Amino acid sequence: MSNQVYKVVELVGSSEESVTKAIDNAIAKAAATIRHLGWFEVVQVRGQVADGKVGQYQVTMKAGFRLED
Amino acid sequence: MSNQVYKVVELVGSSEESVTKAIDNAIAKAAATIRHLGWFEVVQVRGQVADGKVGQYQVTMKAGFRLED
Amino acid sequence: MSNQVYKVVELVGSSEESVTKAIDNAIAKAAATIRHLGWFEVVQVRGQVADGKVGQYQVTMKAGFRLED
Amino acid sequence: MSNQVYKVVELVGSSEESVTKAIDNAIAKAAATIRHLGWFEVVQVRGQVADGKVGQYQVTMKAGFRLED
Amino acid sequence: MSNQVYKVVELVGSSEESVTKAIDNAIAKAAATIRHLGWFEVVQVRGQVADGKVGQYQVTMKAGFRLED
Amino acid sequence: MSNQVYKVVELVGSSEESVTKAIDNAIAKAAATIRHLGWFEVVQVRGQVADGKVGQYQVTMKAGFRLED
Amino acid sequence: MSNQVYKVVELVGSSEESVTKAIDNAIAKAAATIRHLGWFEVVQVRGQVADGKVGQYQVTMKAGFRLED
Amino acid sequence: MSNQVYKVVELVGSSEESVTKAIDNAIAKAAATIRHLGWFEVVQVRGQVADGKVGQYQVTMKAGFRLED
Amino acid sequence: MSNQVYKVVELVGSSEESVTKAIDNAIAKAAATIRHLGWFEVVQVRGQVADGKVGQYQVTMKAGFRLED
Amino acid sequence: MSNQVYKVVELVGSSEESVTKAIDNAIAKAAATIRHLGWFEVVQVRGQVADGKVGQYQVTMKAGFRLED
Amino acid sequence: MSNQVYKVVELVGSSEESVTKAIDNAIAKAAATIRHLGWFEVVQVRGQVADGKVGQYQVTMKAGFRLED
Amino acid sequence: MSNQVYKVVELVGSSEESVTKAIDNAIAKAAATIRHLGWFEVVQVRGQVADGKVGQYQVTMKAGFRLED
Fold first, then answer.
1. Alpha-carbon distance F6 to F25, whole Å?
2. Are residues I1 and A26, on separate chains, in Cβ contact within 8 Å?
3. CB contact under 8 A, K40 and J19
4. Does the structure's ipTM exceed the value 0.90?
5. Which residues contact G63 (CB under 8 A, 6 or more apart)?
6. Chain B hits for E50, Cβ within 8 Å
7. Pairing with F8, which of A28, B47, E5, F62 sits 20 to 30 Å away (CA)?
8. Does E8 touch chain D (CB under 8 A)?
9. Which pTM was predicted?
């Protein structure tokens, strides 16, 4: 374990299907541009209602990645 | 965007299946009597244990709706 | 309703599949050694990222059980 | 355990005697108009001072009740 | 100071002008249907951005009123 | 309602009898030296254990008073 | 003051009489099996409602004790 | 940057006009008796309702000042 | 409502005039370089004191924007 | 990454020397009886004052360990 | 354990060397004018950056002392 | 004091030696690529345990810097 430094970014993933899908969507999107993505932490779960049922699950999350030397 | 006013109510949805189902159940119930329901926010996830496994997922959530003029 | 006393323990369940499975895993594990397990409450949802997608969902939760007389 | 939905309301009970009496007063008042009242949770304890001593204990609490089908 | 009971409701006021106006709008709307409205407390200040500037200030607040005997 | 300014101080009251007595003790002590004491708010309830039972209830609280012109 | 280490456990005490009794019940129960119990801290006060009045006060608390060398 | 020590006091400013005015009133009052007042931080925004509209904005804030050597 | 992903950044806006102006300044600055800026949420209101009155209002806020596909 | 379950315990470490030493003391003590201790998280830093200076640093922390299959 | 009352003050200690030194500086300063200083609790750790490294550690803390009879 | 805007980023610094070193490492790393870095605030202190003692201190912190005009 050396003295690495990590950066944490905040993301909001959304999905019409489930809370888990919203998390997965945000991680997939972030991983497309961020290297060394290592962990995430859910900050809040919200959603939109449309036609009397949940239209979109929205998960705010923090995601951390190691900064390169 | 005019100067609308919204009201927020607190609900607890439950489900024997999943966290998402508990959210869906509460929204469906609320939508049956509240018009203009627009969004929700999860406040807490709890549950009951029965026979050594989760018997019920309980999701406390806030749900907001626009007040009519 | 008599004057019972309960103890609360903190657990972290993990799953490669979903948030709900992580909860289920922790409850099943705890129920194997704790009697009278009654309820749980989610404290935090985190996870690990591997190969650009979620590799593990981790749910920190409190679980309560009644102490025997 | 079926898939019931509960509503949560926020109340402030007050009493010149004690914190417990303030809780009791709010629950008694709520129970007079709300059916299926099931649980409460204390959010805050405040009070007014008069003539150099506590004149009123005020307890903000949430109270939950099952919505009928 | 007798043993009064109060109810607290959660509202979101909005305004295109300022944070204060958003508070005022919610209170005016609530006062039109609620008697004995006594106090409010700001819970959150949010807003929408449109055309590169704030399009709407949104203030979530709790408002308390005395229940009649 | 003019534009008054209040100061808030933090106190810890203690009692061997009850939580309420601990509050009362702190308010009585504060009122002996502070004029215009108007309200209090409980921040935390703690206590010491001695000989297998509660030896002292300790209530941390904020107390507010109006500053004179 | 040497370099002692303490452990903290979470308990829920209940009482049909009062908040203070619920605290006392939990401490008495814990002291029966834990040595060197030294302090407690209230985390949450909840309760059950039965027949339109409080049927049980429930106090979640942390209790600390010194670990023996 | 030497090793200075600061004290933080808690104040509640009020105004019939706006949130900002309530902050300004508290700072002006505090500055009349406290030297080296350096910064403030808003803790809570509340208010009183009178005649169906906001009668007083109340801002609880912390204010810090350097202690003299 | 498709499965969009948003990013959230944290900003501190400042103004010598008012809390609202501090929010406006941060949004204007952010909008100059960020596309699809959609909403903001106030995290904290602080300020500097100079010559016995508020010299600068500082508003810490989160601002969210949609990531392009 | 399989579906492991972890337990989290709360400890208070103390030291007459420094905050870091208080953490180290608690971990060393816990490691003497707990296998698979993996991580810790600081919850609170407190201390006692004696003779006008810090006599003891006290660090409350959570420590997690993997439960064996 | 008699029914003592304590007062709690908030301080910010600073140091160019370490977090611990910042705590020590604040306690030493407070002890010079406050009698019966008994405990402290860290509220926040901040700092200033100068020339690309930490120029000052700042620790906000609460310190409690017994009021004389 | 003009109307500057600042950005805040979240970092995790690590060190095998101490909490302070973990802060220093993160600031040094950030300062290598960010201009006008001005302040930081500790959000959380965690760590890894290896061979029965602390193997790595990890400090999550926010760091703020002024945006250029």
1. 22
2. no
3. no
4. yes
5. F49, G8, G9, G10, G11, G26, G27, G30, G34, G37, G39, G40, G41
6. 1
7. E5
8. yes
9. 0.95
CATH topology of domain E6-66: Dodecin subunit-like (3.30.1660)
Residue I23 is classified by DSSP as H
Flag whether residue I57 sits within 8 Å of chain E, measured between CB atoms: no
Distance of CA L10 to the CA centre of its chain: 7
pLDDT over threshold 60, residue D1? no
| Bridge partners, residue J54, by sequence | J49
Measured CA angle at A41 (ends A35, A45), to 5 deg: 120
CB atoms within 10 A of CB F1: 12
> Does domain H17-66 sit in CATH 3.30.1660.10?
yes
Chains near J with 3+ CB pairs less than 8 A apart are C, G, K, L
How many CB atoms sit inside 10 A of residue D28's CB?
16
User: Quick one: tokens of C26?
Assistant: 């922790």
The partner residue sitting opposite G5, judged by closest CB among J13, J16, J50, is: J13
Domain residue extents for chain F: 6-66
User: Nearest-CA neighbor of F18 among E39, D13, D18?
Assistant: D18
Q: Structure tokens of D37?
A: 């009242």
User: What stretches in chain G show pLDDT beneath 50?
Assistant: 1
- Which whole-number Å values give the CA distances from I30 to B5, B9, E46, G15, I64, in the listed order? 28, 33, 16, 55, 10
Distance CA G62, CA H12 (A): 32
Whether J41 and chain L come into contact, CB under 8 Å, resolves to: yes
pLDDT digits (tens, 9 = 90+) for E38-64: 999 999 999 999 999 999 999 999 999
Substitution target from H18, H54, H56, H58 for chain E, most E beta carbons within 10 A: H54
In order, the DSSP letters of H8-64 are: EEEEEEEESS-HHHHHHHHHHHHHTT-TTEEEEEEEEEEEEEETTEEEEEEEEEEEE
